[in-house]
Amino acid sequence: MSPDYDVIGTIKTLEAKLRRKAEKWPGINNLSVSEMDVIIALDKEKDKKLELKEIEARMFAPQSTIFGIVKKLEQKGMVELGGSSDDKRIRIASLTEKGIDFCKRSADDRLEDEALLLSGLTEEEKLIFAVLLKKVADTMKLKEK
Description:
145 residues, 3-stranded antiparallel sheet, Arc Repressor Mutant, subunit A
């Protein structure tokens, strides 16, 4: 790849711009970026819950960091931390009604931000972009193991 094409720099710029836009979502003023990332990860799940190990893998962060973020979200009433019924050593974070309400209120803003991000692409390019982005993310996830 040409040194003139700075993929990492472009990704960081996009992330920074999207995060600045996300700071304007309703109810975001008392959440950190990392807290928002955990809430969004939980919201994507059908049952609105994830094992902490899975959150760690998705966010590429150590257990102690994720545990601290989830504890802060628990104090804010956005997340509940519990154990697995099968194995009490397995910690599970789940969205509370307050967390679910936040996600519902911010959903339109998230969709608008995504539409803006993809607005310069054709429908075919959007599909290709999504497939390639997932492939890169999956590769990074594999390399972490």
